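Figure 3 (text version): structure tokens given as input.
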């Protein structure tokens, strides 16, 4: 069985790499014919891989995960070895590996192999966090907290472990887990400086173990804790100055005025980038320097940082002078605040804000779609959008900014939103003409003539809502787009959060806020009994008819997508529409479904838009535009 398990993992990784190779070929396609052929090959490869690999996985590994079957020690070690290999070579498969590691921990605990048990639990706690871009499940978070608390048990572990190498692995587990928890606290949409300090204090307890560690090892960890984490603690306190307690402010003010102030007088090459930015932010938020002075000190410096084209930084807080990513993600918001608080005229402020946002958008376009730490980058860019979207005072620019993020991190979702928007436009025009009463109370209209008069406004409103409705998927781009297997239940639970995340983003900007409710409700059923999020009541929304149209179009594109959905097979339009009819009145609005069926021209138009031929042509133009 050992060789069979190894062959399974090797075959799986080969299929993954074959899909990736096809993707690179896609980007260099020269003609539509070649392009469509590629999409068909890629689709067939994925479709063939699904049942084969899932069946093989269930045959070889499935019984082990369920506590069934007979596995020798050698078999178990092989599963463990391959699971680690899978994590290293195919980062989007951590959830499979975590299931294996969770079971292995039980096996090791039963056999009294406590070091091995700790190691498996460490991998489980950390890998789920990494694979989900900072969204750890509660059990993983609690296990990570427990792992860090084990620093108090290191003296016992030193006696218990077989040799020094094993003991030092225990130390590394605690240290790395602490790093991830600290990272999680910093990457929250609304970080709590007190929690960040607490996470730092938890990691710092490792420094009390000086007598247990070789000098070289201790010096390494001490340097990491002070120079990387400690510096970031200072930066986050400056960035979220308004959230600090008065006591913490006084402590921080003393430190800045006695130690960090020297950063301004140092030659540029001798400055510590993060400490420099920390002091400038402190000066701005505490009122020590004017907004104009702080802008001149900070913006030009961060703008001129060279781009790290490899994007190999292990986490967004591990920042150095060669990386611009950290500066862009964390200082854009204060830079914009400095502009708005400056002495410039209102027109000059608007112009400068637009220039900064254009710089940021242009920078995002340089980030490779496939790069190290994609999950952290996805979340950091979502965090960036969350922090700056409120400063965009032009609706078309805001939507373009959203498009840029989706284009860079999740091109398939950008295509989906455009396709969905096209479908809404095909439906809404004739629906208004024939059934204007469905649109009463939307955008303040209450009679037939008012609906007809605002027909273009209603269509544009829905079009823009469709373009924005899936922005939350940026946080889980890897989960959605890269696997060549059906998604797991946990992944699906995570995907269901995306409508709420879209709502969060859109509500941050007054120009986009009207679309937030539509984004939030587009996965709720027509009768309000199913779908997500359960907390949202779509049945009493003033935008209900628009939510219903978007819901149908969203499902229509997803269900007929022959190319872009790795985890499901695209269906024919006729089959999809039969499913719509079977679920009208419950899942879908019956007025819309009946209208589409009764309008032969509309039915034919929707079928054409979603056809494989039209879709392939559309994909070609989108990829050629944004590749």
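Below: residues designed for each position.
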């Amino acid at each position: 069985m050992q060789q069979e398990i190894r062959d399974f993992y090797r075959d799986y990784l080969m299929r993954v790499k074959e899909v990736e190779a096809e993707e690179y070929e896609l980007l260099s396609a020269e003609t539509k014919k070649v392009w469509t052929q590629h999409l068909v090959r890629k689709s067939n490869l994925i479709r063939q891989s699904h049942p084969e690999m899932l069946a093989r996985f269930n045959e070889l590994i499935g019984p082990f995960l369920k506590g069934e079957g007979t596995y020798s020690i050698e078999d178990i070690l092989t599963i463990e070895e391959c699971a680690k290999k899978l994590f290293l070579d195919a980062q989007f498969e951590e959830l499979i590996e975590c299931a294996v590691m969770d079971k292995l921990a039980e096996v090791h605990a039963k056999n009294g192999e406590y070091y091995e048990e700790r190691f498996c639990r460490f991998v489980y706690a950390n890998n789920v966090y990494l694979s989900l871009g900072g969204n750890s499940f509660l059990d993983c978070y609690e296990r990570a907290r427990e792992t860090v608390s084990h620093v108090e048990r290191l003296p016992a572990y030193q006696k218990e472990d077989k040799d020094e190498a094993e003991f030092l692995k225990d130390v590394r587990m605690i240290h790395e887990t602490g790093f991830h928890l600290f990272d999680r606290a910093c990457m929250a949409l609304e970080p709590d400086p007190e929690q960040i300090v607490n996470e730092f204090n938890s990691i710092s307890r490792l420094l009390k173990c000086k007598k247990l560690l070789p000098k070289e090892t201790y010096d390494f960890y001490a340097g990491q804790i002070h120079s990387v984490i400690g510096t970031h603690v200072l930066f986050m306190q400056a960035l979220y100055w308004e959230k600090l307690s008065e006591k913490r402010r006084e402590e921080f003010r003393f430190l800045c005025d006695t130690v960090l102030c020297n950063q301004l007088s140092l030659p540029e090459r001798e400055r510590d980038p993060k400490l420099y930015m920390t002091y400038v932010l402190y000066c701005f938020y505490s009122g020590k320097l004017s907004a104009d002075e702080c802008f001149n000190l900070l913006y030009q410096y961060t703008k001129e940082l060279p781009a790290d084209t490899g994007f190999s930084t292990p986490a967004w807080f591990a920042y150095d002078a060669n990386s611009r990513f950290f500066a862009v993600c964390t200082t854009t918001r204060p830079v914009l605040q400095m502009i708005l608080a400056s002495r410039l005229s209102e027109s000059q402020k608007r112009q400068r804000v637009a220039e900064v946002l254009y710089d940021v958008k242009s920078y995002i376009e340089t980030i490779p779609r496939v790069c190290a730490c994609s999950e952290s980058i996805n979340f950091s860019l979502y965090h960036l959008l969350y922090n700056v979207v409120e400063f965009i005072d032009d609706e078309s620019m805001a939507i373009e900014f959203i498009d840029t993020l989706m284009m860079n991190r999740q091109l398939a979702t950008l295509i989906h939103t455009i396709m969905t928007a096209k479908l809404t436009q095909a439906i809404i025009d004739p629906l208004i003409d024939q059934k204007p009463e469905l649109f009463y109370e939307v955008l303040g209209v209450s009679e037939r003539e008012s609906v007809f008069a605002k027909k273009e406004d209603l269509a544009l409103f829905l079009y823009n809502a469709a373009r924005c409705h899936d922005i939350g998927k940026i946080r889980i781009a890897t989960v959605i787009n890269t696997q060549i297997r059906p998604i797991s239940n946990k992944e699906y639970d995570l995907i269901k959060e995306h409508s709420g995340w879209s709502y969060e983003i859109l509500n941050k900007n007054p120009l986009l806020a009207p679309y937030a409710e539509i984004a939030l409700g587009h996965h709720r059923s027509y009768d309000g009994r199913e779908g997500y999020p359960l907390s949202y009541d779509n049945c009493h929304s003033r935008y209900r008819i628009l939510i219903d149209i978007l819901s149908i179009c969203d499902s229509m594109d997803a269900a007929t997508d022959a190319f872009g959905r790795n985890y499901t097979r695209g269906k024919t339009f006729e089959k999809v529409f039969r499913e719509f009819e079977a679920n009208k009145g419950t899942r879908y609005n019956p007025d819309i479904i009946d209208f589409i069926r009764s309008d032969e021209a509309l039915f034919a138009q929707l079928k054409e838009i979603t056809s494989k031929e039209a879709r392939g042509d559309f994909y070609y133009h989108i990829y050629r535009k944004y590749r």
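The chain has 30 helices and no strands.
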